[in-house]
TrEMBL record, chain A:
Keywords: Cell membrane, Membrane, Transmembrane, Transmembrane helix. It comes from the Bacteria. It comes from Hansschlegelia beijingensis. This is Branched-chain amino acid transport system permease protein. Pfam families: BPD_transp_2, DUF3382.
TrEMBL record, chain B:
Keywords: Amino-acid transport, ATP-binding, Nucleotide-binding, Transport. GO terms for molecular function: ATP binding; ATP hydrolysis activity; L-isoleucine transmembrane transporter activity; L-phenylalanine transmembrane transporter activity; L-valine transmembrane transporter activity. It comes from Hansschlegelia beijingensis. It comes from the Bacteria. SMART domains: AAA. Residues 17-273 form the ABC transporter domain. This is Branched-chain amino acid transport system ATP-binding protein.
Amino acid sequence: MADHAPAHPSSPFMAALRNAFITALIALGLAAPMMGLVTVQGPNGLRLEPHWERVAIAVGLVFLGRLALNLTIWRPDAGRTRTQIPPRVEATLARLGRWFAPVAVALAVALPFLPGVERYTVDLAILVLTYVMLGWGLNIVVGLAGLLDLGYVAFYAVGAYSYALLAQHFGLSFWVCLPLAGILAAFWGVLLGFPVLRLRGDYLAIVTLAFGEIIRIVLLNWYWFTGGPNGIGGIPRPSFFGLDFTPGPDGFAATFGLKFSPLHRIIFLYYLILALALITNFVTIRLRRLPIGRAWEALREDEIACRSLGVNTVNTKLTAFALGAMFAGFAGSFFATRQGFISPESFVFMESAMILAIVVLGGMGSQIGVAIAAVAMIGGFELFREFKDYRMIVFGAVMVGIMVWRPRGLVSSRTPSVFLKEKKAIAGSLVQEGHG
Amino acid sequence: MTVRPLDAPELPPEVLLRVEHLTMRFGGLVAVDDVSFDVRRDEITALIGPNGAGKTTVFNCITGFYKPTVGRLTLRRAEDESWLLERLRDHEISRAAGVARTFQNIRLFGGMTLLENLLVAQHGPLMRASGFTLLGVLGFASYGRAERAAIDKATAWLERIGLIDRADDAAADLPYGDQRRLEIARAMCTDPVLLCLDEPAAGLNPRESAELNTLLRSIRNEGVAVLLIEHDMSVVMEISDHVVVLDYGKKISDGSPAAVREDPKVIAAYLGVEDEEVAKVEQEIERIAEESGA
């Protein structure tokens, strides 16, 4: 807005004042109906109660705030908003970054036994790790192959329902169902991949979005198979290699001579998801250094050049969809076993959006960035519970802030998959975001 | 491993690619109209013509980006290995038939390093070595060896185009002329028998242009045929062994550079002059040719 300098440059102060006045008018238009009028239950039904003083305060705040900003940060001679961290800071961060991953993993392994950690923290950590895993899975599709997938939660749902149904109807154990759920989800990934092979950008996004909704609506309406909106309950809990987490003599606690505690199962689930997430990470890092991973990134950079070099783009895209879906399937079956109950309500579009936001905020293609973003978003979301309704506003404000200062995500630079002499990070501005 | 398709014609041994009756229609527009020519082994063939003559369309047909409306494209890779290019899918043209190409507007993988660019070009062999990813994920040594060989090959090419010091920089960071050379090196890393270059000298300064000529000659001398589209007549006349001229989608001339230069049809098409003025224009062309020869 500050760029809209007056046509005839009078004084900068007048321009700032004018701009602030226009902003205040917009605020007035918004605040008058939303804050100024309150419906109150009267004796004869609802009546409107005007609260113009609130409107005045809001408009006044907006006016003064905008004026202050116009005169300080958004001054025409203040230069452009800095979107880059200075190189020196960046270098320090990079040095810290080398230590960050091992320290974070060590911390994650030790977490359940740290002093002061209670059930709630472990539960929250399980939730965060589920999203870390989903973020890493989606990172293959969006971050590496550059294919915008808005229906990722569908594969999460396929994984969850696969486990729930296989366990309930065939009595298969979690460890048998886990790979099956992954394979089934990967199969659906390929199924989605085929029709969208030729699509790019917005079109790809719309079709994947529709795919996610189709899966959810089928789950909702295929009553005899999925239980419809009632969901599936009583999903078997995982056992510790055959030992159940029960107080009985055959239980986990009795076998190892421990005192029974319901926390054992939670801690076991925590290590389970930690292992699954780390496997996802390990496989992704490994794949990036293999020809398939380089082909994904090349596909994101330039699909036409890929074809001219003999890269089979169909197979490359399908493997990206299949692998991304497979990890979502693993996470889905973990979700089902942890909750013990699943229903289509857990697999709404909001979940897809959340996972995508984690990937975008973290920096597309960056493993560490995605993990940090998942911790910040899911953990932060829980921490701000006291803000109640306002946490959405805080959440939105943080997102806007990150996109202003770090437009390419928290970790925007790309690490080369192979190097000759020296491993240099590649600036995010040089890396393509993919064609959709 | 391959067989000659039953209806592939028997090509003379010196012919690498035979283009026959190639026609490409886009709706009502005939972009290429019944064009036939040969690309011979050990030769640099230039495809020239005024803007809109259909040169890039011919290129896109040969490299599989378009399916020709009519025509047959036979490539004889080895004595007992022939391919009908119009029947192959685009990525197979590079991998199986050994046709590599560059683009008029450079298409490098900008966010990847130079080394990575050259490794993507070796995707096919590396993919086989990694057991289609399975062996690679498990960390088999055979893949490690294949990758080291691929890196050695990439290193050799980077040394050859003088960019070895920048191997670990992003391709998008390179100056324009270096990007052109890198794109050629990347195409060469696919081990082609035919290298198709779409205006390789566009935007190069005279020194870079001369370096390019040296590079192309050395590629030809190694037994890789080169087919290039070029506007810069000095490049065409200096390095090509064989010139094909297109105008309005039709072939108007085909022969050695000297013969083509003398062809009045070419002169008329290039300069859009009446027949009476041809003599004058010929003198002009001669002068340019002398300068470029100098």
